[in-house]
């Protein structure tokens, strides 16, 4: 069976598997890997283990190297540049008169690509916007439309319980939640009581339903 490590690229994000190669990798380390988006730095969340090929997306990409001090500085610089990128993109969105709410920006580690996340209640033709942004940032541009639950996960915040959003803290993926779960737990069916900040049913409705 292939030997792999688990890498996460954002807090509470999906875990991806990579071939550690000859590198000595331990949980908690940061590593530089090649992804479909280009070079990325991720955090190792699970150490080397053997996993059946049926559970993996083959072929596996290899870890290029453990992240060094220079890599960490570059990643921090990228985060600083993201706020600047948001401001510049917002100006262009307004100039084009597009009905879209800008949520976040993200640079790939090698800065070859800038990804902008937005929400909109309609389909947006942003082809001209992409051309202008590519000229401004001199990099590949991706505009990704996301839903309200994804927006909450990306932004983070405090839920009605007084704790950080589950989706932004530890939930790797969204799971289906239904009104039936609230009924089975004898909870109030008042939408304001069982809905999260995103306006959808709270993810935590699923946590204890199997005990009822």
Could you give the topology of this structure?
Elements: E1 3-8, E2 15-18, E3 30-35, E4 38-50, E5 63-66, H1 69-96, E6 101-107, E7 113-119, H2 127-137, E8 140-145, H3 148-155, H4 166-169, H5 179-184, H6 191-194
Parallel strand pairs: 7-8
Antiparallel strand pairs: 1-2, 1-4, 3-4, 3-5, 6-7
Helix pairs in contact: 1-2
Major sheet: 5 strands, antiparallel
Uncertain regions spanning at least 5 consecutive residues: none
The value of Rg in angstroms is: 20 Å
Strand content: 25-35%
For the residues shown, what is the average pLDDT? 92
Task: Give the number of helices.
Answer: 6
Distance between the termini: 39 Å
Structural class: alpha+beta
Characterization of the model:
- The structure is a single chain.
- With 212 residues, the chain is of the alpha+beta class.
- It has six helices and eight strands, in the order βββββαββαβαααα.
- It has helices at residues 69-96, 127-137, 148-155, 166-169, 179-184, 191-194, and strands at residues 3-8, 15-18, 30-35, 38-50, 63-66, 101-107, 113-119, 140-145.
- The strands form two sheets. It has a five-stranded antiparallel β-sheet with strand order 2-1-4-3-5, with no helix packed on it. It has a three-stranded mixed β-sheet with strand order 6-7-8, with helices on both faces.
- α1 crosses α2.
- The longest helix is centred in the middle third of the chain and has 28 residues, at 69-96.
- 18% of the residues are buried.
- The model has no long low-confidence stretch (mean pLDDT 92).
